[in-house]
Amino acid sequence: MLTATYYALMLLLGYFWYRYGKKLLDQGLRDENDEFTKPPLGPVGFLLVTGVTCYLAFEALRALVLGKIPCVGKGCKSQIYTL
């Protein structure tokens, strides 16, 4: 049940992340004079950064939910300590 809840939350997070990104892309990149600007890395860099960020967020949430992050230090019964 915990795994199903985890994957349902990840799907919701992905959906809302997609909608937010789509809204930003539809607005376009503009500077302070309301003129269009070119991104420094282009669409390939955007996709690469988005992919890496989503992967890292997915793995961090997965580790927290499944309890794979070990505690470090004393008094770890109610708190999560990480390096």
Keywords for this entry:
single chain; 83 residues; mainly alpha; 61% helix; elongated
At a glance:
With 83 residues, the chain is mainly alpha-helical. The chain has 2 helices and no strands. Helix content is 61%, strand content 0%.
Number of beta-strand segments: 0
- Low-confidence parts lasting 5 or more residues at pLDDT below 50? none
**Count of helices?**
2
Distance between the termini: 29 Å
Q: Identify the overall geometry.
A: elongated
- Main sheet: strands, sense, barrel: none
Strand content: under 5%
Structure description:
By secondary structure, the chain is mainly alpha-helical. It has one domain. 61% of the residues lie in helices and 0% in strands. It has helices spanning 2-27, 42-66. Helix 1 runs antiparallel to helix 2 (42-66). It is elongated, with a radius of gyration of 18 Å.
Layout of helices and strands, plus pairs?
Elements: H1 2-27, H2 42-66
Helix pairs in contact: 1-2
